[in-house]
């Protein structure tokens, strides 16, 4: 990355520390797969412990900042400005199944705007970072969204709604509509990494409904800082980070892609 700010340095250290522990726990998951009970409780515990260490590290470094995380809920800020947004383990289902694709995601918001983000995949040793105005980075490499315009060569990431989700029928129509027109669609199972991959140009775009702010805060900044666009899938005026109805892609294809998905 460029010169990391003091806040970004705190975020990177917290993500690395939590990830070290998660990697150890991930090694255990394989052994637990064979038991009848499975690894469910073990993984919820690993998730919770990871969030506890991240929250403690962040709050110790910046006691006046607020906090929201997937596992432990919200703390109001004392400075009325800043908030940490944390997903200690994004890609929980992958983790539970021994699939090596998951990450730690930490975002920082200031007056309602995301100003820094970290998405760390310790298995691939990929540290994605972004700061407002300073670009998006993968380790030491500056990121840029893909420049493709031709839908037929584009590769998209998506999220498949869970069984019983109200978003499922619409998603299936979108998939049926988009698949024949593009090069492929992937469901990798960690939304924070999906967005980081859009920033890196690995995916030409990503869409998913019903996401939570901790899934997307850090990744959203990466996409913007890599020159990409974020749009609400359904409502032009809405902020997709707040609504969780996320489309992320490059500027060339945003309009046609949005139209195609809305037609479905
Ligand atoms: C989930 C993952 C998944 C996405 C879900 C999220 P979790 O987060 O990001 O890719 O499809 O919507 O809830 O539960 O693994 O932290
Ligand atoms: Ca998540």
From TrEMBL:
Segments passing through the bilayer: none
Top EC group: hydrolase
Gene3D superfamilies attached to this UniProt entry: 3.40.190.80, Fructose-1,6-Bisphosphatase, subunit A, domain 1
Record has Cytoplasm as a keyword: no
UniProt: Mg(2+) 1 binding residues: 70, 87, 89, 215
GO molecular function, one term: metal ion binding
Binding-site list for Mg(2+) 2: 90
Catalytic activity: a myo-inositol phosphate + H2O = myo-inositol + phosphate
EC number: 3.1.3.25
InterPro entries reported in the protein's UniProt record: IMPase, Inositol_monoP_metal-BS, Inositol_monophosphatase-like, Inositol_monophosphatase_CS, Inositol_monophosphatase_SuhB
Magnesium listed as a keyword: yes
Cofactor names: Mg(2+)
Domain of life: Bacteria
Pfam families tied to this protein: Inositol_P (PF00459)
Keywords attached to this entry: Hydrolase, Magnesium, Metal-binding
PROSITE patterns noted in UniProt: IMP_1, IMP_2
Single GO BP term: phosphatidylinositol phosphate biosynthetic process
Family: Belongs to the inositol monophosphatase superfamily.
Name the UniProt record assigns to this protein: Inositol-1-monophosphatase
């Amino acid at each position: 990355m460029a010169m990391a700010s003091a806040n970004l340095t705190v975020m990177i250290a917290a993500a690395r520390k939590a990830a070290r522990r998660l990697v150890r726990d991930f090694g255990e998951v394989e052994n637990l797969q064979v038991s009848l009970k499975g690894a469910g409780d073990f993984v919820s515990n690993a998730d919770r412990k990871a969030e506890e260490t991240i929250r403690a590290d962040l709050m110790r470094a910046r006691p006046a900042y607020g906090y929201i995380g997937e596992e432990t809920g919200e703390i109001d800020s004392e400075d009325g400005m800043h908030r940490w947004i944390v997903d200690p383990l994004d890609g929980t289902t992958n983790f539970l199944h021994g699939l090596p694709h998951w990450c730690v995601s930490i975002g920082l918001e200031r007056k309602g705007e995301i100003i820094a983000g970290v998405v760390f995949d310790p298995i691939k040793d990929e540290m994605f970072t972004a700061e407002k105005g300073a670009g998006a980075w993968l380790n030491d490499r500056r990121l840029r969204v893909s420049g493709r315009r031709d839908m037929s060569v584009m590769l998209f990431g998506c999220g498949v709604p869970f069984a019983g989700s109200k978003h499922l029928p619409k998603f299936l129509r979108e998939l049926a509509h988009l698949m024949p027109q593009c090069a492929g669609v992937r469901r990798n199972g960690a939304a924070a990494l999906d967005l980081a991959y859009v920033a890196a140009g690995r995916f030409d775009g990503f869409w998913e409904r019903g996401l939570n702010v901790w899934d997307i805060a850090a990744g959203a900044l990466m996409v913007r800082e890599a020159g990409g666009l974020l749009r609400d899938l359904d409502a032009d005026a809405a902020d997709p980070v707040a609504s969780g109805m996320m489309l992320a892609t490059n500027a060339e294809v945003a309009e046609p892609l949005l139209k195609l998905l809305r037609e479905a």
